[in-house]
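Notebook B, p. 112. Complex prediction, attempt 2.
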Amino acid sequence: MYAFNYHAPKTVRQAATLLAKNEDGKVLAGGQTLLPTMKQRLASPSALIDLNHAEGMSGIEQKGRNIIIGAMTRHVEVATSAVVKNALPALAALAGGIGDPAVRNRGTIGGSIANNDPAADYPSAVLALGATIVTNKRKIAADEFFQGMFSTALEEGEIIVKVSFPIPSKAAYEKFPNPASRYALVGVFVAKKGSDVRVAVTGAGSNGVFRSKECEAALATRFNAKSLDGVKVSASGLNADMHASADYRAHLIPVMAKRAVEKASAK
Amino acid sequence: MASVSMTVNGKQVSATVDPRTLLAQFLREHLHLTGTHVGCDTSQCGACVVHVNGRAIKSCTTLAVSCDGATVTTIEGIGTADNLHPMQAAFRENHGLQCGFCTPGMIMSAIDIVNRKGNKLDEHTIREELEGNICRCTGYHNIVKAVAQGAAAMK
Amino acid sequence: MSAKTGVGAPVLRKEDFRFITGKGQYTDDINRQDQAYAYFLRSPHAHATIKKLDISAAKSAPGVLGVLTGDDLAADKIGGLICGWMIHNKDGSPMKAGAHPALAQGKVRYVGDHVAVVIADTYAQAKDAAEKIVVDYQVLPAVVDMNKAKSSPAIHDVAPDNVVYDWHLGDKAATDAAFSKAKHVTKIDLVNNRLIPNAMEPRAAIGDFDAGTGVYTLYTTSQNPHVARLVLSAFVGIAPEHKLRVIAPDVGGGFGSKIFIYAEETVCVWASKKVGRPVKWTADRTEAFLSDAHGRDHISHAELALDDKGKILGLRVKTKANLGAYLSTFSSCVPTYLYAPLLSGQYDIPAIYAEVEGIYTTTAPVDAYRGAGRPEATFLIERIIEKAARETGTDPATFRRKNFIKSFPHQTPVIMAYDTGNYTASLDLALEMADYKNFAKRKKDSAKNGKLRGIGFSAYIEACGIAPSAAVGSLGAGVGLWESAEIRVNPVGTVEVLTGSHSHGQGHETTFAQLVADRLGIDIDSVSVVHGDTDKVQFGMGTYGSRSGAVGMSAIVKAVDKVIAKGKKVAAYALEAAEKDIQFKDGRFSVAGTDKSLAFGEVALQAYIAHKFNGQDLEPGLKEGAFYDPTNFTFPSGVHICEVEIDPDTGTTDIVKWTAVDDFGNVINPMIVEGQVHGGIAQGVGQALLEGAHYNADGQLVTASYMDYTMPRADDLPSFDIGMTNTPCTTNPLGIKGCGEAGAIAAPPAVINAITDAVGHEDVPMPATPYAVWQACQKGARKLAAE
């Protein structure tokens, strides 16, 4: 790691002020991605604004037909929350499959979404459920939030405070992990709310999370696994690396979508 | 430099450290608690797992300063020579270790599994829950047995 | 002797207490007063000449004590790292070994090669300063593909075509004659994938020079501290052996990778005198990936000749072996003498001819990794046997049974003389344990669920107990491979066993104590095992090649026998009887035909007080040493059966059942032996399904962390069903064969034979990742459609 200045603000407001004051400063949430990146000297923030001591940034509540999760809420808390398990079990299951138990005990939803790692799990849920990202400055719709690999609509000095997930009628997430890193090689989150069906794919796209038009079209008429029989997803724009070709990823998208639909329908 | 205070294995400790000091480094280099090991750079291997505020975390992926005010438990803090923690005893009784390097992290993760999932653990659950702890020696066969036995003994 | 701790009992490990309580002492846990830290600047290029190396800015960076380069090594006349086994070409000329300086001298030859070392007060300062070193590289083309190496730029001037050696073994004419008579020839092309050992403890070293005595001490992660001292003294020239102490404390796994004498350890011990402070270095995982010696990496073509009854007539093998950018300590012998002599497997093969080319590439050095040569041989023979069975429409178990060697001793056409074995017994037990007869039904059930089920065999043999010194000497080894032991009996009757073997997970502190306690009839808690320190242990060749049992314990038994013999003399004086009348049994020396006797501890006391010896013909004390040189290799063997279920939609392979039946000869501690089998299988399954080092065309290691190199995790593996048969080894006093490498040798072909069985064709690479198996399923589907 390169040297950096450390700040532990007590409030979001203080954090924002510190962020504004420290050019090249970065927000530290769970640190499960940022710290390994810094250890490898691939990132060199001048300062870390540590949110681990900031008040009021963690917690889960249901407000009407929305689940609202504080940005510093750890994955383990989402995975085991009675509220989430009851109203949005797909999200609890997703959180319970991120990284490994020790990573889930530390990693946060805000950190995951702000980083927008192309193989992270949460972005698929945010996009498929049409969640709203609430920052210290404004509310951002999921469709506008993710802007390509490691890139989001967050502006300088903007900090995610919470995320609001509308409760769908059916939803599920299926991940095919990279055998080495266990990140999503292909992760598919399907959600049905009224007649609106969304299928968000993570891990596969070279531009980060995206919606699969092919799968959504097939499921729009009938939300059933069989609707996905024969659906072909284009390999163009998908990642290719030693673990999987673009064709293999394209093949896995409807396979995982189908499994997700089966899971969502079983409930 | 930044100051940090925490409770480690029941003892209050305070120090002034470079902010980039990881919790693993703090434990090993400042407190000489060398039972916590570092086996990788990418938060995968789990040799560094300790408990912070009762939860297993990877101490190589946590800043010491982030743990200001926290309660930390390491492998040195879970049992005594005369009174081993049941999970420690289970690893020995089931030959759940060979070179011993991954063992402290394995034991700390195993205790965390029991804390979260209870005392009756089946093989499938144990294998899934050990996803973040890599062992190169044992093939996990005896670790799985040890965790099941240790879990039952923690009742 | 208690049945609970005697030979054959599953005694719990004595060493475990310190490991489960966090009290182990690994090299990185040790800190010397005033120690400084080393950081190695490594080459970012696979192949380049260094036009200019400017260290001035780094030298004046905060905290820096020294920046050292290859020029400093040369100025101090520090020699290069060596390869200790000379291989000769087919024409009798010696192999072409390029120089291997510990820090680059004008050229770098792989990504991670050592350019310079920075030593500073803190590790962070050393790393920061290293960024200030300016290196002007002239980048040369990388040489990654073994098939193109001959026409690529030379990596070492001494080997213009990048061929280290062109070696062969066996009788070419006899093999050609066998093929001319063949009714069927099975051919196969195989790649044995490159692996990275990944002991969980990264390599580490502390060099500590004592200016007062002129003695260097090296604390290091070594499987063989005496060999390290020998090489650093006699070849590298750091200091003569009596001025160099090497300590290998608790070592967190080795698997071969900690046998070798590397640049970093060498530099730390040398630099400790240069900077006048102890110098510590601990690899991070990325450095381990880049610079630990890798394993395997063969490309082979093989042909098997059969007669009209399916009996094997001959085997022909052509292998290219990647040796990396430099010849590591034992690298040259791995794809030659540890490989081709095993190609007869468990089979009666009248004629074998093998050719091996060792190739330089701009990749990390390749050397012994768990099994070392023998997994490569087993993979080849067990894959071609399986394919031959399929091509001739024979059940694979039946095909093997028909061709097994059935009488012993058996001389193969490739050096080895197998002393004993019963391959049919292992196969029979494995078939029963695996419920082979109901496999067809299970396959049908899987098909109903849309899954492909397959079963695969591996009937392996290995040569362990490495090795008779005369034999290895005649084949080019620079050292003898005996082992030494010393039994030091204290006046109170407690015993220290000093061994040249080194435990880094194998449980020697328990097994060796178990053996000695059993032989001396004393409590196991009265025996402690001392190893891993050249100042304490007389000498030793270390632990690798499953040798600690067959060779190390044989030395111990020899020393124990000497202690008993001396004890009889002592007892004779003490009991005032004739030495010939003294008997030793169950820990007591007694006079035959009388009730006069002394316990072992009482005799020890008599030996040390020496009141009755009169200073004449019997020396006081009770301490004996022995060197044991084996007369032959040992030949553990067994049959592993792997059953898999494949999801053709994703390519995921699930190992649903693993059966292992091994013949290790006599077993001291079955609990520890089974643990060794488990770990070996996991590494073998890792090779078959998960692990593979991958360099891109530029010579960059793509798999340089656990993000891309797939380590076997708990949920990748099943529990294993373990069975044992026993034909005791006839060539060592304990009848032990060795068990450390068996699983890693047996497993890969069992897995691939199962997957190829499931998908219905032979074209499945290692590692058989979901992606690879999905592709194989696509190919299989196309094949079926065409039929």
